[in-house]
């Protein structure tokens, strides 16, 4: 009976074909939409100051429950759901426009590119925190929701070719990790430190990788130990997402040995990302690797063959990680010109969208998207989506908070998203453990809509309390 249930759960997440990019964009638009409503409440009514129980509940519903509803109960009505969120924000903005007066801005400094002397070189930025926090929330919800029938099958990971919400989530997680990894490179650049030796870089990379590799082995042992349902074609027999994350820093350390001269950091990592992505795509199509990964004998080459998806797709995830670093190179530093930063972000977003369209199956060279391969179109889709998402969050921040008095970062960032961002590693690990516990305890395939939503609400509530508790305690465990 246990084996039969395992097979049923494996079949439930196998051989899926996904949905459309348009629908995925509408569903994920709930994150910027709720940020707009949060910002309208904050700037027009000063609702989240002080931050008490009512504010916490509102924050919880806006930044976690809304995302949960968008991928379950309202999954077939994403446009309507976004309108229901945006209409109150529009009403607040229009009715209080006259009363809401922003303070006069200071005159711009003559040097439009240099940050003010008192401002840190790498300040915290509200839109980046909101972006990463929202991405973490939707990722944690989806990894459990996918096991219930209330979660549409078109949102679950695609078997071979196509796009889905969870395919987007995996790549976005890697992109986001790359974005924040740019911080250390920028610190060294601003300090004008001499380039580190390969040995020093590898030592630091292994220190960053070790916790993730350990978590990968822990997950492997737990999955095999309890005979947990597995989707083998996702990463392979032994490989899992923690291994993919864990092996990225050492590969990055090796790539940083390439001579670059005085090349701009954004262009450097962009060219590295494109170089890895194009080279990998060429290898896929010219060597028979693509055919082997999709339909080849899994037992032909021992461990390599048993984990062919995870090992092969690693190159694609490395390209995504490098593109995230390239994005971080121009987003993380302080700048006196917000207009210039906005134009730069929009320009790169358009460029990535153009590259994606140039190779995609429908508009370009006829290359299909495959998360299983993490091929070139998948890499370009992930980067294009995330840069556009960042532009959306930055637009909201600029519209509502540009010129606000006091600590604009503190005012602009929802407490719950700040907590999810600050403790990503701990929250993600607990989310995986709770997902396993729920699946071992109950048959998720027979749970009705109401019960499924209740379980998911309790689950995300536990994660929220954990994240906020760690944040209030001053604990920081990031990815």
TrEMBL record:
Belongs to the PIGW family. One of its GO terms (biological process) is GPI anchor biosynthetic process. The chain crosses the membrane at residues 20-41, 53-73, 79-99, 130-151, 163-183, 204-223, 235-255, 267-284, 314-333, 345-364, 376-396, 416-438, 450-470. It is a multi-pass membrane protein. GO terms for cellular component: endoplasmic reticulum membrane. The keyword Nucleotidyltransferase does not apply. Its main location: endoplasmic reticulum. Keywords: Acyltransferase, Endoplasmic reticulum, GPI-anchor biosynthesis, Membrane, Transferase, Transmembrane, Transmembrane helix. A acetyltransferase, which acetylates the inositol ring of phosphatidylinositol during biosynthesis of GPI-anchor. Its EC number is 2.3.-.-. Pfam families: GWT1 (PF06423). Pathway: Glycolipid biosynthesis; glycosylphosphatidylinositol-anchor biosynthesis. It is found in: Endoplasmic reticulum membrane. It comes from the Eukaryota. The keyword Signal does not apply. It comes from Morchella conica CCBAS932. InterPro entries: PIGW/GWT1 (IPR009447). This is GPI-anchored wall transfer protein.
């Amino acid at each position: 009976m246990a084996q039969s249930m395992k097979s049923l759960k494996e079949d439930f997440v196998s051989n899926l074909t996904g949905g459309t990019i348009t629908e995925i964009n509408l569903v994920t638009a709930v994150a910027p939409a709720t940020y707009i409503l949060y910002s309208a409440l904050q700037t027009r009514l000063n609702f989240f100051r002080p931050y008490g129980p009512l504010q916490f509940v509102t924050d919880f519903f806006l930044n976690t429950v809304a995302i949960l509803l968008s991928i379950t109960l309202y999954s077939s009505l994403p446009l309507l759901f976004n309108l229901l969120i945006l209409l109150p924000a529009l009403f607040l903005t229009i009715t209080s426009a006259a009363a809401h007066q922003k303070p006069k801005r200071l005159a711009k400094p003559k040097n439009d590119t240099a940050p003010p002397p008192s401002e840190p070189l790498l300040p915290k930025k509200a839109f980046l925190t909101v972006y990463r926090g929202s991405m973490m929330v939707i990722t944690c919800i989806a990894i459990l929701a996918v096991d219930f029938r209330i979660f549409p099958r078109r949102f679950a990971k695609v078997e071979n070719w196509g796009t889905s919400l969870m395919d987007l989530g995996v790549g976005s997680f890697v992109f986001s990790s790359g974005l924040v990894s740019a911080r250390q490179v920028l610190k060294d650049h601003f300090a004008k430190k001499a380039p580190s030796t390969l040995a020093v870089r590898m030592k630091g990379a292994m220190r960053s990788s070790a916790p993730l590799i350990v978590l990968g082995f822990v997950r492997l042992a737990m999955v095999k130990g309890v005979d947990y349902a597995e989707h083998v074609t996702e990463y392979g027999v032994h490989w899992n997402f923690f291994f993919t994350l864990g092996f990225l820093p050492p590969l990055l350390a090796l790539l940083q040995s390439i001579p670059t001269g005085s090349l701009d950091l954004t262009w450097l990592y962009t060219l590295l990302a494109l170089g890895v992505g194009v080279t990998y795509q060429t290898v896929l199509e010219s060597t028979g690797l693509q055919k082997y990964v999709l339909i080849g004998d899994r037992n032909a080459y021992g461990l390599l063959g048993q984990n062919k998806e995870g090992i092969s797709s690693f190159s694609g995830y490395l390209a995504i990680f490098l593109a995230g670093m390239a994005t971080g190179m121009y987003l993380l530093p302080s700048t006196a010109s917000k207009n210039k930063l906005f134009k730069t972000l929009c320009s790169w977003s358009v460029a990535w969208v153009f590259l994606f369209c140039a190779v995609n199956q429908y508009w370009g060279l006829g290359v299909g998207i495959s998360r299983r391969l993490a091929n070139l179109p998948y890499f370009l889709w992930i980067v294009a989506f995330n840069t556009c998402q960042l532009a959306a969050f930055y637009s909201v921040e600029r519209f509502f908070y540009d010129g606000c008095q006091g600590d604009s970062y503190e005012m602009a960032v929802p407490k719950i998203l700040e907590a999810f961002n600050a403790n990503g590693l701990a929250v993600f690990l607990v989310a995986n453990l709770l997902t396993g516990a729920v699946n071992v305890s109950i048959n998720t395939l027979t749970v009705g809509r109401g019960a499924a939503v209740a379980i998911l609400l309790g689950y995300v509530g536990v994660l929220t309390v954990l994240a906020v508790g760690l944040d209030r305690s001053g604990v920081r465990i990031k990815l």
